[in-house]
Every structure is written in structure tokens, then in C-alpha cells.
Amino acid sequence: MYSEQVMDHFTSPRNVGEINSADGEGTVGNAKCGDIMRMYIKVDNGVITDVKFKTFGCGAAIATSSMATEMVKGKTVEEALQLTNQAVADALGGLPPVKMHCSLLAEEAIKAAIEDYMSKHPSA
Amino acid sequence: MSMYFDNAGTTAIKPEVMEAVLPYLAGYYGNASSIHAVGRDARKAVENARAQVAAAIHAKPEEIYFTAGGTESDNWAVKGTAFAHCEKGKHIITSAIEHHAVLHSCQWLQKQGFDITYLPVDAHGLVSLADVEAAIRPDTILISIMMANNEIGAIQPVAEIGALAKAHKVLFHTDAVQAVGAVPIDVGALGVDMLSLSGHKIYGVKGVGALYIRQGVRIDSLLHGGAQERGRRAGTENLPAIVGLGAAIELITQDIESHVLRLIKKRDRLIGGILTAIPHTRLNGHPTRRLPGNVNVSVDYIEGEALLLRLDLAGFQASSGSACTSGSLDPSHVLLAIGLSHEAAHGSLRLSVGDFNTEQDVDELLAVLPGIVQSLRDMSPMYQNRS
Ligand SMILES: Cc1ncc(COP(=O)(O)O)c(C=O)c1O
Ligand code: FES
User: Fold this and answer.
1) How far apart are CA B226 and CA B68, in angstroms?
2) Does domain B256-384 have CATH number 1.10.10.10?
3) Residue from A63, A102, A110, A113 carrying the catalytic annotation
4) A124 assigned to some structural domain
5) Tens digits of per-residue pLDDT, A41-64?
6) What is the band of B16 on the pLDDT scale with cuts at 50, 70, 90?
7) What SS3 class is residue A21?
8) Complex ipTM
9) N or C: which end of chain B has fewer CB within 10 A?
10) Which regions of chain B carry the CATH code 3.40.640.10?
């Protein structure tokens, strides 16, 4: 049911963990199935230098969290804000239709972390 | 040896069953309705299987009707009774934890103007006899309560419900799909009027089952056509599958006590192993009124689908009541009915032990499970925040 890329990111997720003194942190949840995703970002000169996640959710939720962190690492905050769940799903070779909402969680978690960063650094 | 711990989902065909079935795929192809010699061979095989099924549940052969599985048997019992008795009344009593084959049949009947009472269950998954009795009304035509639940393994007080139904002159159907081979069944002693069973849960063939209908009980047919199954269920008999059902049910019930004891030993080893090795786990279902092969635990702070995928990668097959595995994104109705929170249902794991699992298989599963759980917990924001 899952693509090879999904299974790869599920079995060896990249960037799992926490960042102790993160510049931005965001937690989002899915009201429908009850899953939770938390992202931490480290920002240096407007560039995301480190990103970590923790996810309570299905295989697709874990894989999309992992892929999303890979996709925004090294990007500017503005570039990272352009990330869409479709792009995350595409990068994973597609997701089953019932699992598309899990990729939305990844997009929202990244955005929540960035918004947290921006609210703490209004001048940036 | 088998790492397959999803025997409540379906089972592997036993060699003895396969041996019984093969001649009916390879050689005997008759239509049991034909009067010639080829047809008569088929008829003999079907009637032999009918006698095997009847003997296994202490019924008469003429009370056994072959169907295309547990789902059809349930649909037939519920809708067939509803249609045949709607002049007496339109009220049906069932439970909140029935299989969807019964629940969705009831929901469909609701749309046709029937009134359904869905009895709650207690925290262990049992219906209360007082609730059953209180729900019976003058217009009640059917009580349908399953013998054993497929998710949590809870075994209902079927004989007591049967006595209530009889006292109030209400028909009683039980879904025994999970109970066959796990609980001794005597339809007379249980006081059931109809009983559903299925082939593929007892090491038989998929797509075949039976409905026991007590002699004299009137229900409408769902399938109209030829005069098969004493004119009550049309369609040329699925000869190989029926032969397989007969062989499978005979095999699983002939030595039921020791069969059950062997399963319980493996089941309890698994339950004990999980609860001691993995913190924040709880057993779902009843501690003793429980199917001999059923293990259902809630593993806090993790999600079931991720757990199933990791177990599968390690070579073990299991099942979960998590919302993420359901397709509908709703957690299991059974786990919610026993009062589990969405989170606890999320982390539910069902391991159903079968005849092919050895104690060594159980130990191998117990050797990998704690590590898999821990690695998912390490990834979980809920574990991080636990109080
Ligand atoms: C309790 C119960 N009833 C009915 C069914 C449906 O049986 P079948 O798969 O033969 O249609 C199942 C199997 O999933 C079951 O566990
Ligand atoms: S997180 Fe629940 S379905 Fe993906």
C-alpha cells in the first residue's frame, strides 16, 4: 500500500528528535484521527539550519514528517513557507488517498514552527 | 511454526482440509442438483459436509444451510427475520460490539423503518442480561448478540440470553464465527434459533459459511433462484468450499478441550510477556471470558498502524483497532464501546494466536515487540510529554 520511499522514511526516519533551544516550535494535531506532530527548527540568518520532529501517527505521518524535515533543511524561512503537502507526498512517490491528510499535518507542523519563530523574532 | 498472529482475521488452510478439498477441484465437478451419477457424487459430498457441520454444533443436518460466509449468514439471519416477522413488530435488539455484518444490516433495516436497540457493553465487553431483558418489548422480533467478539475476544452469556429470548418468545440469533472451535457449541443447550459460522476462521476455505436455522423457524430468503438448500438459499453449491468447511469444522471440534488448552497456554504467555516487559500497556477485553487465542492490548503513546508495519517488517503479522488502519479514520467501534479513549484505541494491538503458532513463536514475538514499541515511543511527542 505504501511506496518504497514511504517505507524507507518510515523505517529510517530522518531528523527524529528535539532541539533544546529551538528558535521555533510547532505542534499540530489532526482532529479526525487524533494524530500529533511536533517540529523544531533552528534558524540562522533566515536559513533553517536544523530541524527535528516527533510524531504520533501512522506510517504515512512518520514518513511525511521525515520527508518534510529533509525538504526544508537548508532553505530560507520564506522558501520553507512555500512547502505544500502535495510536494511532500510527491517526493515520497505518492500516498494512498486516505493518507493524504497525514501529509497535510507535516506541512502544517513546519508552518507552525516557522510562525512560532517569526512571532519570537518579529524583525527577522 | 508461524509468525502469523492474525488468526482472528483469517487462518491458513490445514493440510487435512486441503486433502479433503482437492478431489473436488481436481476430479469431482458435479452439480449437486443433477440427478445423474456425476451430480449424485456432488450431492453426497455436500450432504456429508452438512452432517459434519450439524454434528459440530449438535444440530440436525436439515437445520444447516450453506452460505457464502459469515457475512451472508449474518445478513440472512437479521434481514430474513426482519422481513418475515415485520407484521408482529419492527424492533430488533443487538449489541454495540457486533461485527459490521450484523451492525450494518441493522443500520440498513433502520432506514427501512425498523427500530434497533444497540445494547451497551461493560468495560470488559459483556452485555448485561438485565439490559437485554429490559430492552424486550411486545414488538421485539429478534435478539442478535454475538457469541464471541472478534476484536477483544469477549464471550457473551449466550445460553442465558437464549433463555430470556425463549421466555419472551423472541427469536435469537448469534454470530458464532469466532466461537467455533473455541467454545463448545450445542445449539439446543444455548437456546439459539439461528447461528452464523464461517469456514476461513477455522482453517477452512474462504467464501463459505453456514447458517443454522432451528427447525420450524421462519425467515425470508435473501437469494432467490433455484431450489438449492431446501429452497431457502438459491445458487449452485460451492462444492469444494463446502467440503472444506465440513472437514475443517470436524477437525477443530473433535478434540476441542485440548485444542483450547493449547491455545490458552500460548495466549497467556503472550499476554503475561507483554504486560510485564512493556510499561504502559493494558489488556482489553475480559480476563477470563475470553477467546482462547485472543490478545488485545493498548500500548500507550504509540499508534497502531505504525506498530503493525514495524511488526510486519520484523516478520510478524497482527491487527489494530487504530483509526489510522480503519480507512474511515474512526477507531474501532468495539474499543470505543468498552470505554477506551481515542488515544487508547489508537495504540491497540490485536494478536490472535492460532494452531500454527508455537510457544517459541510467541517468545520470538516477545523478543522483538518491546524494542519496536520503544523506538516508536522515542518518536512520539506524547511519550515525551507523559505525566
Ligand atoms: C464475528 C464475525 N462475524 C462475521 C464475520 C464475517 O465472516 P466472513 O469473513 O466469512 O464473511 C467475521 C469475520 O471477519 C467475524 O469475525
Ligand atoms: S496519522 Fe492517522 S491516518 Fe495517518
Assistant:
1) 16
2) no
3) A102
4) no
5) 999 999 999 999 999 999 999 999
6) very high
7) coil
8) 0.94
9) C
10) 15-253
Tell me the mean pLDDT in the region B343-372: 96
Candidate list B3, B25, B86, B324, residue with the active-site label: B324
When divided into structural domains, chain A yields a total of 1
Q: Which residues have C-beta within 8 Å of that of residue B170, sequence separation ≥ 6? A: B93, B136, B140, B141, B142, B143
Residues of chain B with CATH 3.90.1150.10: 256-384
Of B166, B206, B198, B193, nearest in space to B182 by CA: B198
A8-43 pLDDT, tens digit each? 999 999 999 999 999 999 999 976 677 899 999 999
Chain A residues with CB inside 8 Å of B379's CB?
13, 16, 54-56, 62
Please, which contacts does B265-269 make with residues 24 or more away whose CB atoms are closer than 8 Å?
A: B265/B359, B266/B293, B266/B353, B266/B357, B266/B358, B266/B359, B266/B362, B267/B292, B267/B293, B267/B294, B267/B295, B267/B353, B269/B359, B269/B362, B269/B363, B269/B366
User: One-letter amino acid identity for B85?
Assistant: H
List Cα–Cα distances, B218 to B79, B82, B93, B251, in angstroms.
12, 10, 18, 31
How many whole angstroms from B378 Cα to the centroid of ligand 1? 36
Annotated active-site residue B106? The verdict is: no
In a domain, A64, yes or no: yes
